[in-house]
Amino acid sequence: xxxxxxxxxxxxxxxxxxxxxxxxxxxxxxxxxxxxxxxxxxxxxxxxxxxxxxxxxxxxxxxxxxxxxxxxxxxxxxxxxxxxxxxxxxxxxxxxxxxxxxxxxxxxxxxxxxxxxxxxxxxxxxxxxxxxxxxxxxxxxxxxxxxxxxxxxxxxxxxxxxxxxxxxxxxxxxxxxxxxxxxxxxxxxxxxxxxxxxxxxxxxxxxxxxxxxxxxxxxxxxxxxxxxxxxxxxxxxxxxxxxxxxxxxxxxxxxxxxxxxxxxxxxxxxxxxxxxxxxxxxxxxxxxxxxxxxxxxxxxxxxxxxxxxxxxxxxxxxxxxxxxxxxxxxxxxxxxxxxxxxxxxxxxxxxxxxxxxxxxxxxxxxxxxxxxxxxx
Length: 376
Ligand SMILES: Cc1cc2nc3c(=O)[nH]c(=O)nc-3n(C[C@H](O)[C@H](O)[C@H](O)COP(=O)(O)OP(=O)(O)OC[C@H]3O[C@@H](n4cnc5c(N)ncnc54)[C@H](O)[C@@H]3O)c2cc1C
Prior knowledge:
Elements: E1 3-10, H1 14-27, E2 31-34, E3 46-48, E4 54-56, E5 64-65, H2 68-74, E6 80-82, E7 87-91, E8 94-98, H3 102-108, H4 111-125, E9 129-132, H5 133-137, H6 142-164, H7 173-177, E10 180-183, E11 194-198, H8 202-210, E12 215-218, E13 230-237, H9 241-244, E14 254-264, E15 274-276, E16 285-288, H10 289-293, E17 300-309, E18 319-320, H11 324-340, E19 344-346, H12 348-351, H13 358-373
Parallel strand pairs: 1-2, 1-13, 2-12, 7-15, 13-19
Antiparallel strand pairs: 3-4, 5-11, 6-11, 7-8, 9-10, 14-17, 14-18, 15-16, 16-17
The chain binds flavin-adenine dinucleotide (FAD).
Flavin-adenine dinucleotide binds near residues 10, 15, 42 and 223.
């Protein structure tokens, strides 16, 4: 006899896992969650390498949020380890805090000039304020405009060009508009109220999210391979929306990444969790896993990150490319979905073609459940 599920859920990342958990525990609905990969947790997947170091296979994932609802939800499945991420940028052989802040200014400029600029910035924008390069370029002060140009050229331009394979002019203006300068000596990368890592890693947390009656998980299973032995009422699809429709309106462009994981026989490799290389090198950044996991030993593993072009079917689609024409194409797919697949819910960073931080993906999954799936 065929096995029946209320929901077939494609993707065992945050979106699929949370909605399966909510359906099971709040609505008593049965789901089959499939993933074409051989593991759960989507891009947040972590595991131990041969040297015993816990590392993030799809790139460093740092948890930070201001959304208490997200913290309350995840805290049911994990304890936490305090971690505040710090990023340094290697600029002409010197390491400066990123985002550019008052300490960065004092490292790169002679003291009297740095003191004078600091005073001008505080007078203009106030202490502990974030101001965009765009806004600084509108300043009546020539010195502030020159500083904005310096930061743009040395910190932003090279990194962005490597990251996207495009010049800033080719990207949506919102990307350049957002680059912050922090008028502060606070060198934390994030200022969110909650900055902690799951104590035993992301995969362990996902195991607990999935451990509910009413959820079956099938790995190494693509939507195309779903057995005819099962039936289901509804489909939640957290894969790429263009792939679902066989790219019939064209491909949605993504940027992909290649990670070179290196393990060194030393306790600590670099001066912060992350070092960015905006000017030199082909890679964008090096992240040292032990900072994130706070597990230190005699060996340490780093992830050296190379942005690469995405080839559908060959590379992993990591980042939707923020260009207006791509968002227009996604809107066309969303219209097609509403017309031709009314029984399918598309969500997640691939389904929505939107870069979500983890807390945003979780918030979106929780509100989608509340709005469209919770029993009334
Ligand atoms: C390099 C990188 C670094 C990041 N760092 C951070 C960070 O530091 N902090 C932060 O908050 N967020 C970070 N993120 C964002 C975070 O990864 C996402 O918010 C999160 O993964 C979104 O979850 P999701 O469920 O939408 O998608 P995913 O985690 O991508 O899950 C989708 C799953 O669907 C599966 N799938 C797709 N199509 C099919 C199919 N046809 N059949 C079967 N399975 C399928 C995929 O294999 C995948 O496992 C980072 C993202 C990247 C790319």
